[in-house]
Amino acid sequence: MIQDLTTNHREIYLSQPNRRFCRSLIITEDKVRLLHYDRSGAYITEMIDLHKEPHIFVRLVLGLSSHNEKHVGLDTSIQWTIDGNGRKTLKLDMTEPPLIYNAIRGTGTTRWIARDKTGARIYVKDAWRASGRTPEHKLLKQADARKVEGVLSVIMAFEDKIAQTKDYRPKAFEAEDFYNRTFSRVALKEAGPPLSAFTSQLEAITTIRDGIIGHRNLLIAGILHRDITMENILITKDNEGRLAGKLCDLATAIPSYEKAKASLEPRVGSQLYFSCSVLRTSEDELELAPTVHDYLDDLESF
Question: Which of 32, 112, 176, 299 would be 124's cystine partner, CB 3.0–4.6 Å?
């Protein structure tokens, strides 16, 4: 039952990109338990006897059926309107659907396309970073100040510490596998579609090449990217209108001098792009010592 609900909750996250957390109940003839899912993973209560503690059951039902979208886990800072057909539409450019992180636990990166007053494209990105990591807006400012070429880093606006997953848990909650995550948002000048949208061999190879150059320039500026995927390499044009590529998304990036800490959450993301070394760094690995993610792992991802 719990596994089935986990799959259902994942589908809810994919269908509702403005969701911060998701909750549901498991009910039997005489017991009930609450399942809570957010970007730090799952929290499941013990079974509660319906007959001995009916007031708790009533509170659970009332909470899960609230008309307040914030109370049921939706991000109310994303404003919605109702069109003539009764459907919800975002006050964003929804001709291009948002890019959504495909797992519950992790950064939960969601990218939206918006428009400024002049009609220019704006790239808005939401993400949940692990506690102890440098905020993305600081890394973006560092890259922009050093004029790093080949990286999308011009910030138009940002908001940090919007929410934390620890606030969705009981005050005395403790678990070995729980790592707090902080929700933040940045708005950048939009550069173009991801590499996965390439239309020719020349476009693909040129974009990958420029992505590697951007990664090198970022590393020279003191920042290690650590999340090289097709979605994080953008197809763009240079100042002369020629085909070019740019690297984006510093949600999991770190200062190049920063070392991995045992207390930080293990790497999450698309394993398709992880290097062999990163894949073998886990609690289940008994033969090899844990390794720190470095630029060679990123090159292997390319």
Answer: 112
- Report the distance separating Cα 54 and Cα 33, nearest Å: 12
Residue (of 104, 128, 124) closest to 114 by Cα position:
124
pLDDT digit of tens for each residue in the chain (302 aa)? Answer: 777 888 899 999 988 888 999 999 999 999 999 999 999 999 999 999 999 999 999 999 999 999 999 999 999 887 655 556 655 544 677 777 788 888 888 899 999 888 877 777 888 899 999 888 899 999 999 999 999 999 998 888 899 999 999 999 988 888 877 889 999 999 988 778 899 999 999 999 999 999 999 999 999 999 999 999 999 999 998 878 889 999 999 988 999 876 554 334 556 667 888 888 887 776 555 566 667 788 999 999 99
Smallest CA-to-CA distance from 249 within 166, 207, 186 is with 186
Entry pTM: 0.84
User: For residue 52, how far is the Cα from the chain centroid?
Assistant: 41
CA–CA distance, 79 with 26 (Å, rounded to integer): 31
**269 Rama class: left (phi>0) / alpha (psi -120 to 50) / beta:** left
Length, in residues, of the chain: 302
